[in-house]
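Honest question from a wet-lab person: if I give you the sequences of every part of a complex, can you actually get the arrangement of the whole thing, not just the pieces? Trying it with mine:
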Amino acid sequence: MDEYALAIGNGLKERAKELGRYGADKVFLADDPSLEPFNADYYRQVALDVTKKTGPSMILAAATSTGKDLAPRLAIHLNTAVASECTQLEVDNGQIVATRPAYAGKVLLKVKIKSTPNIATLRPNVFTAKEASPQRNPSVEQVGFSKPNSRMIVKEFVTHGTKKLDLTEASVIVSGGRGMGGPQNYKILEELAEAVGGVVGASRASVDAGWRPHSDQVGQTGRTVSPTLYIACGISGAIQHRVGMINSKVIVAINKDPEAPIFGFADYGVVGDVFEVVPALTREMKKFYAKN
Amino acid sequence: MRIIVCVRRVPDTAARIRIASDGKSIETSDAEFVINPYEEYALEQAVQLKEKHGGEVTVVTLGPEKSTQMIMKALALGADNAVHLRTEDPHGDPSSIAKAIANELKSHQFDILLFGKKGVDDDNQQVGQMVAELLDIPCVTQIVKLELSDGRAVAQREVEGGGIVVETSLPAAFTAEKDLTVPRYASLRELVAARKKPIVAREVQLQPPLLEIISVHNPPPRAPGKIVGKGVEAVPLLVKLLHEEAKVI
Ligand SMILES: Cc1cc2nc3c(=O)[nH]c(=O)nc-3n(C[C@H](O)[C@H](O)[C@H](O)COP(=O)(O)OP(=O)(O)OC[C@H]3O[C@@H](n4cnc5c(N)ncnc54)[C@H](O)[C@@H]3O)c2cc1C
Ligand SMILES: Nc1ncnc2c1ncn2[C@@H]1O[C@H](COP(=O)(O)O)[C@@H](O)[C@H]1O
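Yes, you can. This is the full assembly:
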């Protein structure tokens, strides 16, 4: 089976070849200033053009805001279906059998698509990329892009304050809940996050209180994250929070209530006051990184 | 201004989820059903637009006969009328649902078409974009802000690391992210008034599903963790365990 990669964006020429290392036999590249940020009308056209040219049996995309916006549009034009946010893929008889969480992660569904191409979006950080071979040198084919008549004008990209790594991309997340007591106290979490190279997340209680922006919220109505290390500070561990972070590799909980539900699924728990334990952990981490 | 909101009926998110005896579906007989939470934001947005620009709000839902209670709730929250596309088995394929909804909407005139970002049951996040593509109208997903002026819409999507501002012509479709609006509560008076609002019901036949559920499983349990200790004294051991045992630092 041949694997093609399709890269859409602006200024990707240098990077397109890198996709070969991860297994692409050939890379299609649509590179144009108007392709950043994402415009659904443009991306749909490019992806459909390449699909028509190559007739794939499967189309995979990342389950990011872009991938999840685009995949269903392609599916409806190609008269097929999408398996969303897959966490596992198997191939049976040339067909994808995908595992995907539903009901906010309370159950896992195994699904199959009866039409071709099989389309799936894959949850970030769940599948690990193998560096296949650095010597591979796939051909890069430029895809002509003539701006279609779009009824959408993508005007600007706005950041929430200082640009930082997104929660879904971070390998360490330090999350604070109602137990942080107020917005000013998140400073100690920022310091811990900085010491471990992570970013700060939040529970809904702290977002609803206006302490943190909604984009920081982890959980059923916020982000689904799967970092290597998730440190929950002053978070009780409600089911709606749990579903957003349960796929983290290692979960640490700091909570003063030994009965807090979070201790039921954290790998490591410290019973104590965040205002004492978190600064101590920051100091200890700094010490650790100075040595290692 | 004509606004249509597509609402999905879902089990209450607090409900316990049990796998049905066929091993392929969820047992919902004892679940309480509600308006999908993302449509609460969408519906509130629709009602606010109506209050500001005048017009009419129609809710459209595809689901079993038992959806009436949820439709009443949507009407009490400010919708003027409803279309109920009835099917006893709304199987889990978003593309078939989208085709049936799009087919209905072809005979409606509207300026704004609103969806939730995703149904919190199957978590597909597909139907909105699919309906918009079938109707050939622009669609902006995951919006946290929507404003109208001079016959155009300006929406802000929430994406990784920030927001994207998108302007569209009308009619256009949008899918609501949490916090697009603050949903209101329906008063008793509005609940009573809702009973007089018109509901058009139509039987629909869904196309056979292209996406098939083979089986449903419980997620593997997470191994129980351990309490490292109490207070500041536990911190050195925690760091040691993270390094030597968990190997994450
Ligand atoms: C439809 C729906 C969707 C939801 N979606 C989400 C979601 O996406 N994300 C989410 O997080 N929640 C969500 N929730 C809310 C969820 O049910 C909880 O209410 C929320 O997660 C609680 O946040 P919390 O743990 O910060 O606060 P609390 O439950 O109040 O817990 C605070 C914790 O801090 C501890 N604490 C207090 N002071 C200290 C201290 N000084 N030191 C150490 N520990 C301390 C307490 O012991 C307690 O355990 C949702 C709810 C519903 C109904
Ligand atoms: N059965 C349905 N009836 C009406 N609207 C629906 C239905 N299913 C999905 N939708 C709409 O499409 C959005 C996305 O749904 P989904 O693709 O199932 O996650 C929902 O938030 C609803 O606005």
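Two things worth pointing out. DSSP finds six helices and 15 strands in chain B. The longest helix of chain B spans residues 37-53.
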